[in-house]
Amino acid sequence: MEGASFGAGRAGGAIDPVDFLKQPQTILRVTTWIFSIVVFGSIVNECYVNKDSQNPELLCIFNENESACSYGIAVGIIAFFGCIFFFVVDLYFQQISSVKDRKRAVLLDLGFSGFLSFLWFVAFCFLANQWQRTTMSKGVSQGADAARAAITFSFFSIIVWVALAVKALQRYRLGTDMSLFATDQFATDPNAAYPGYPTGSGIESTETYQSPPFTETLDANPKGYQVPAY
């Protein structure tokens, strides 16, 4: 069982950078990494505006609700570092020789992807709701494009993270099926001998043999025959 499992090749195999970058899972991670930068970057740089020219205080563009901006930034940063972490895990996943460690990595990926999908869904609903309640002003109009970008890419992030969760679930099911196959086909003890053909004791029994046919007990002096005297 210390071989190919959970969607990766046998442990210790060489990693082809081109094939790795072409994997759907890698493309999805890079995509959601870019989306996270767009979301928290837009909020930090352009979603804090002045209410009017006489008030220098910067307020959150989403209905002046500081919680909306803070939540969007927090989810974006979590997604940013999470993508980097799991990108590194995917890069070295094939070097993991233990099936149990591979299983833990896949389950962690599945749980984190599902959790981020939920966080992005909440972020999209929260930001969209607060943006609808926002009163347009000169300051708000200046950061309107950034606010719309944050909402739009929050929605796209939901789709990408759900896709990552589905990919992790597929890898988990694939690894589980292969583990069951290996358990049924091979002995659990790696030192156990492979079952061969049954062999005898090496001692042949003479009881199984029968007397050869056409053998008779010869009488030295058969009846009716006399030895001539010379």
TrEMBL record:
<protein>
    <recommendedName>
        <fullName>Synaptogyrin</fullName>
    </recommendedName>
</protein>
<feature type="domain" description="MARVEL">
    <location>
        <begin position="20"/>
        <end position="173"/>
    </location>
</feature>
<dbReference type="GO" id="GO:0030672">
    <property type="term" value="C:synaptic vesicle membrane"/>
</dbReference>
<dbReference type="Pfam" id="PF01284">
    <property type="entry name" value="MARVEL"/>
</dbReference>
<dbReference type="GO" id="GO:0031594">
    <property type="term" value="C:neuromuscular junction"/>
</dbReference>
<feature type="transmembrane region" description="Helical">
    <location>
        <begin position="71"/>
        <end position="93"/>
    </location>
</feature>
<feature type="transmembrane region" description="Helical">
    <location>
        <begin position="105"/>
        <end position="129"/>
    </location>
</feature>
<keyword id="KW-0472">Membrane</keyword>
<feature type="transmembrane region" description="Helical">
    <location>
        <begin position="149"/>
        <end position="169"/>
    </location>
</feature>
<keyword id="KW-0812">Transmembrane</keyword>
<feature type="transmembrane region" description="Helical">
    <location>
        <begin position="30"/>
        <end position="51"/>
    </location>
</feature>
<dbReference type="InterPro" id="IPR016579">
    <property type="entry name" value="Synaptogyrin"/>
</dbReference>
<comment type="similarity">
    <text>Belongs to the synaptogyrin family.</text>
</comment>
<keyword id="KW-1133">Transmembrane helix</keyword>
<dbReference type="InterPro" id="IPR008253">
    <property type="entry name" value="Marvel"/>
</dbReference>
